[in-house]
Structure of Ribosomal RNA small subunit methyltransferase I:
Amino acid sequence: MTSFLSTPALMLQLSELADDQTYPTGALYVVATPIGNVADITVRALHVLGLVDRVAAEDTRNTSQLLARYGIAKPTIAVHEHNEKSAAERLVAYLKDSERIACVSDAGTPGISDPGARLVDAVRDAGLPVIPLPGASALTTALSAAGAFGGGFSFIGFLPAKGRQRATQLRILANHPMALVFYEAPHRIVETTRALAEAFGDERQLLIARELTKLHESLHRCTLAEGPTWLEADANRQRGEFVLVVEGAPETEDAEDAHDALLSTLLEELSVKSAARIAATLTGASRNALYERALKLARRGDGEGD
Ligand code: SAM
């Protein structure tokens, strides 16, 4: 089979497009790398990885091996959760010397349940530019296949490993109206899906996205009650890396009453627009729905005052 990459003119055109952008020196480039399939790298990521002076990597051995697959060899510097602050100081010094540095994690987008965020803060605090390059993330990959229930979402990442702490966090999230996205490791996947059903009830939709972009990729959508049973039915279903997307809490009268109470208080000091905006931030509910509700409450208030 002929690969489109064997068309030299196309490859040249794509790399010229990547080259058209300016890539300032003294800047940190936050570069997403694949979450499984090595081909899931952008042309621009390859261009920048080829251009930078060094690569800040969560695991330098992994990254050197990945870069070798693309025919790139660069000096690497380790930046992981245990040294991110001190490594950031060294990297800022290199940037001040007008280097270009790429920041990558082991897989996917740096800073998403991965090191990178503190380095970004340090670079920005030093008054230097941070330039993000979009690419793979398990978060967006799973959401893209979740369907309508994943439309509005909150990213939670890994839940606490200890049962009691996990249950506390899930209790806090139980009435959150948007879909919730979790990352989970294989040895806790059954336990976590069970805890989700206990905290949120049996009925909500669940997407179990496993080994995305890899040979044994599977996406299974079911209810929260069915999740643990489905996983336990076959040991292979518990292997690999997981993203869980859980449908948000249904609107209840209790939630509406709570929103009205919050909006009424905010409307004592604020405009309808500001009250809706702040209530949306505090509750996670839709800003438009809260605006409509706030408008009604404000009109009712005006009527009462007549
Ligand atoms: N920075 C990464 C990203 O952008 O998605 C996430 C890194 S986090 C340390 C690793 C977790 O992401 C895994 O435990 C798993 O929950 C999720 N993950 C990463 N790759 C995955 C894949 N190919 N399929 C499913 N989940 C994946």
